[in-house]
Amino acid sequence: MKFNSEIEINSNEAIIEAVQAGLGIGFVSKHTVKLELENSIIKQLNIDKFPITRHWHTVHSNKTELSPIAQRFKDFIIESSQLKNKKYN
């Protein structure tokens, strides 16, 4: 699928408002449009080869040590990612 993107909007709220105004289609997480979908304000398009996967990175300052809770969260993200990658490979 190829898109000719005319504009880029960095706010989920602005994307939803643009779609509601009839300016085109938008890509947002389903949970961000739950109310709009439930109230039939917008509709979801079912497209082959979705969901789109992206590579995410964890970043933190190398000048300070992560707190124990932050380290656990980072470990959780990495472990979850590895499990998901095994599922799709």
Topology:
Layout: H1 12-20, H2 34-38, H3 68-88
At a glance:
This protein is mostly helical and 89 residues long. The chain has helices at 12-20, 34-38, 68-88.
Please characterize this protein's 3D structure.
There is one protein chain. With 89 residues, the protein is mainly alpha-helical. The protein has 2 domains: 1-48, no CATH class; 53-89. Helix content is 39%, strand content 0%. It has 3 helices and no strands. It has helices spanning 12-20, 34-38, 68-88. It is elongated and about 50 Å long.
The description of the largest β-sheet is: none
Order of helices and strands: HHH
Number of domains: 2
Radius of gyration: 18 Å
> What is the mean pLDDT?
84
Measured as a percent range, the helix fraction is 25-40%
What is the number of helical segments per DSSP (H or I, 4+ residues)?
3
What is the tally of beta strands? 0
- Structural class computed from helices and strand pairing: mainly alpha
Q: What is the distance, rounded to the nearest whole angstrom, between the alpha carbons of the first and last residues? A: 22 Å
Note poorly predicted spans.
Answer: none
Strand content: under 5%
Principal-axes shape call? elongated
